[in-house]
Every structure is written in C-alpha cells, then in structure tokens.
Amino acid sequence: MEERQPELGGLWKRVVVVGGGVAGSLMAKTLQFNADVTLVDPKEYFEIPYASLRSKVEPAFAERSLIYHKDYLTNGRLIVGKVISISNSQVLTSEGHQISYDYLVVATGHTGSFPRTRSERLTEFRTEHEEIRSADSILIVGGGHVGVELAAEIAFDFPQKKVTLVHEGSRLMEFIGAKAADKALQWLKSRRVEVMLRQSIDLHNLSEESKTFETSSGERIRADRLFVCTGKPPASDWLRETFLKDSIDRFGNVKVDENLRVKGYKNVFAVGDITDIKEIKQGYFAQQQALVAAKNLKALMDGGPEKKMAIYKARPGKIIVSLGRQDAVAQFQYTTWIGLVPGMIKSKDLFVGKTRKKLGLDPRIADH
C-alpha cells in the first residue's frame, strides 16, 4: 500500500478523503493516479450498503459486497482509523495520525457502528442469519426503504416466519410516490407480513431479553428478534468543533455549492449522504456526486479556471425498492410498476456487480 508511482516532479497535491463509503471509496479510487491520495476510514473494507439486507438472509452474499479498500486503492494510502478533528491543513485521527492535505474531501455519510475488520463483519452477518433462521417471529421498526426491503427479504426467504412491520407514518416510504408505496404494501401483505401504520414503539425502554413489545396504541407484539430500521442522522458531529462548524445546517448536513465544495472554502469538498443537496439519499446519487467532485478536483490541481468546473445538479432519478430476490417496485419520472421487470434491474444482484466494476474489480469474484 505504501508503494506508489513517482510524483510528477514533486508537484502532486495531497488529497485526504475522510470516509470510505459509496462516495468516498469511488472518490479515492478515481483520484489515486492524479494526486497523493490518503483514504481514512474506521474500517479496512468498503461495504456496499444496498447489499447488506440480503446478506442478513444469505451471509455468502456479503463475500462480494465487502471489499477491502486495498483492493481498489492500489496507488493510494489507507489509514484505518477514526477522524476526530481537522484543521485547515491537517486531519487528526483518534489513533494519533496527523495527515497534511492540500485538498480535503468529507464523505462520512450517516452515523453507524461497524466492526473494523472484514472477517468480523462477515461473522455479524452469519450471526444475524442464524438469529433470523431460529426465530419464529420477527419485528421490524421503521417503514422506510430499509425496513420494507428487510421485511421483503425475510418474507421471501423464510415464508413461514411471522413478520411484523411497525411504522409511525401514514404510509410506507414517504420519500416515494403514494402509488409505489401502496404497491409495496400490497406485496408485503401478499407475503403475510403484518404492516402496522401510524404506530410506534418506545425503543428507549427495552431490555436485552424483551420478547414482547407494546405499540403507541397499546397493542402488544410478540417477537423473537427485533430489527430497528429507523433513519440515522448524518455523521457530522465531529465537525462541530472544527473550522467547518458553521458549514453544517440544522439537520447536520454539510452545506455545499454547485461544484460540491463546502460553501466558503476553495479546497474542501463534501460528497454523498452528508451533503445538504436536496435529493434522495441513495448510492447512485452519491456515486454521481463523487465523479463530479473528482473531476473538479482534477481540474483545480491541473490549474484550470474555476469557472469551468463541473456543476452538480440534483435531479429526480429512478427509485427501485427491491422486494425479495425476484420482485421490485420502481418509480420512474412518468410511470410506476411492480414485479419481475423492475426486479430484474435490481433485486437479483442489488447492483453489487456494477459497483464492483466502478471500483475496477471483477463483478463476479469475491474478495479474500
């Protein structure tokens, strides 16, 4: 990992990418032969997030979706650690690493807790699979796309399980159109998933041994296994004590301009779910942001004029929510449909092969 091509006359700029998720990994991969790139991530691997729910019901699926950073970052430096602070010239990790930069990219996404090593993450998936397999009843709290897709994965692979989905909203997946949400609801009901809308569960007063859960309406639910699929806030708290503290909006998102630079700064970019761009937070858009930001960074490092930098425009894109291994519900700009056709687009492989190809890896072969 420390070997790299000779710097071009000693003029290579130092780029530090904080966060190795969907956007950060692609950013580092794209820039590694144009700059002195350092990727800082708490994990030694990149996890394709839209594959994680399938991995709970089929642990072997994670073999292709958990990718060592070193496998695509062949000409960059990887530091496995947690960034705790930044200055206008350096990044500091909790392990004591101080990394100087000319350009900084913030790509920390949403909050979450993941093990440091790939093998530990694979073990987590195997454990969750065993818990699902041995459970007679499963409760899922949260009816966004994560809760819906998880309920569908379990209902498809384990049709004998009693699956209950509790959601506080008046309908599932408020980010999608009502027609698509209703189609997803009908699919879940057809698979015997009990969906309880306009109800919530107090998650703060649960014990480790809880097997019975009470909803806000007083209804009691018996479940052997609980999955909480409610939204997670942006991973930006660590920025609040840094020089970027005024660049965070009230929702915790980092404010960026049309070129994906943090507003007010010429050498600091932010990409992915942590930005304040008004669009659905999904992997495809995070990748598009990374490619635009990488193009702009290359232009700046080459001395190009700022006025010619690429502009990122938020736009409505296709939304596909997988429903098990075969079906999906899709919402495009002018049409919505459900079944095998949208399922062929996403549900079989969950875009794992495409994501691996973008990182320059064989789409079919698992990493070891």
UniProtKB/TrEMBL annotation:
It comes from the Eukaryota. InterPro entries: FAD/NAD-bd_sf, FAD/NAD-binding_dom. Pfam families: Pyr_redox_2. Residues 14-290 form the FAD/NAD(P)-binding domain. Gene3D superfamilies: 3.50.50.100. Putative FAD-dependent oxidoreductase. This is Apoptosis-inducing factor B-like. It comes from Salvia divinorum (Maria pastora).
